[in-house]
């Protein structure tokens, strides 16, 4: 982390109000997803504040230069997504991702961990946003199923959600731009909430729970979208307007 900060001196402006975090607790981390830079920013901001982040990743990402082999070595769970056509041809493939989630969560119970979930399922682009007809200005629609199952599988081990909104002034940077030192400033808003009983249940079989869970997650996304809009409108003055705690990662 120290070497990364020296090589890539990014100013991370952290916006939080009296949050309490611990490396001895289990957390579910939810963040918006725009670029693979998100992962590096999250690791940098949350390092030594909560347990090391573990991600559910698409299987194809194992081929990402440098990061892929690192994720594999760190035993990150890799998920394979099947298309509707593939599932129709081979119904036995249905539920394979749930089984991977089940096995990963069983490992996560052995010691404190922060489970990172990009519930949008993919990176935000204008094309994807338009194709979805997303009701959110800065976000894609959240996918509730994987999150609901992970919370259920982890049970009483996990009690907190760390909700993160990441905003890049100007255009969203690419991973290569980050490596080249072109990312100068990033704004990160963090809030922590309890995971109550309404967020635990059988997402597959309990329709009432499924609807309620989707509504709860949708409300979180409405609030996150508003936070991102505030950052977009305020841009460089966001720190002063929200009395944020500013962290300069170059120090």
TrEMBL record:
Keyword Transmembrane: no
Top-level taxon in the UniProt lineage: Bacteria
A Pfam match: Acyltransferase
Keywords: Acyltransferase, Transferase
Gene Ontology molecular functions: acyltransferase activity
Limits of the Phospholipid/glycerol acyltransferase domain: 27-169
Protein name as catalogued: Acyltransferase family protein
